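Notes on consecutive records. When two proteins share a document, each keeps its own sequence and its own token line. Never mix them. Below: protein one.
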Amino acid sequence: MCLPFSDSSSVCSEALAYFITVNSESHREAWTSLLLLLLTKTLKISDEKFKAHASMYYPYLCEIMQFDLIPELRAVLRKFFLRIGVVYKIWIPEEPSQVQGTLSPVW
């Protein structure tokens, strides 16, 4: 992320908002690679920066979950939401690998 936080989070938020408004399935598919890149890069930043970005992206990502997404995007969204749980201390993984790997339900 080479832009300052306010600029990069604004541009990324606008991209997420746009993805939600796209009606054409083929156009949405074209944007999927961009979303994968955005979310993957955001997952790699420090917890403090991630927390700031995640708070901006959260409502958009909740909306995006309603779409029929490719498995790769679903997997990255899952990792993103799991990390939100960790950085906001609403979920503490029993093992650090649970955030990155597959999580089996405990209930």
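Protein two starts on the next line and is unrelated to protein one.
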Amino acid sequence: MRKCAQLELFRERLPRKPYYSDELTTGLRIADVARALGARYIQPNGPTHRHWIVFDVDHAAATLSWDDVGAPAPNITVTNKANGHAHLIYGLDTPIRTAPDGNAAPLRYAAAIEAALREKLGADMGYSGLICKNPLHEHWLVQVWEPRLYDLAWLSDYLDLSSYNGRKSLPEYGLGRNCTLFEKTRLWAYKAIRQGWPDYPEWLAACVDRASGYNAQFEQPLPANEVRHTAKSIAKWTHQHLSPAGFREEQARRGAKGGKVSKGGGRPSNSGKDKSDLLPEVLRLKAQGYTNRDIADDLGVLGIFRPKTTKCSGGPAVCGLQRGITFFEIPIWALFE
């Protein structure tokens, strides 16, 4: 096979020890890259980052299906010579972190784009994305189309994301599973850590156990190491930022206000304060069950964002989705990155 920049990049981005297989019916194995590259199927992404978005199109004209529906050109197509079925591979110039540290807005944006592009292509929703046809193996017909890597905004130009605006949860396949897993686990963690304030090893084990339970509910569960990385990210963050002292201080502060969020003159002034400075306070209040509206009102940050009836204009990095997401429809902490 002749050398190609996209194929060389695919090789460079492979996990250190990817899953691989020659026949899917015999199951998956794991080995170093050199061994895995000799197999027909290989794991394209590692457990913490998504470098490639892969779609499985199961019909005889799959290789050019993107052109038929006006979708962006894939970087690589890997086609079964016998039946025409193909994997369409899109490369990202900036990989998406699937185990986010506090801010899941970019992950949610990527998940919405993936879901919309899957629908546009008519790709298989049951495809887990864990392994793909190996574009470096001679068994397949491999073609390179778009020479440049995509950013999410470029992909979104081809898509209608309106059906994903304002949803509290995305479809539970592809990156949508990562979003759901992160949301469920971190909401549980904010409250559960107060039950005895466990040491980190014990807390990490509890987070992994909880995340694994949520993962088992998916029709196509995420790989165990991906679940562990997500749980570890949440365990580390909550253990570092939530503490008994901070909780007591917050209880005392709220007790002085009569046990409920102030709506009047006691509101602290945050003029001139950067939004990121308020994040610890936001998370403390959120962990105690206060609503986004009450938290924003109490901290005096309501004016920073558009009201609920107005579309957010802050862009994908702020809104989570490019169009139609409003302040109170996504987790408040996601706007403080």
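For the record: Residues 175-192 form the longest helix (18 residues).
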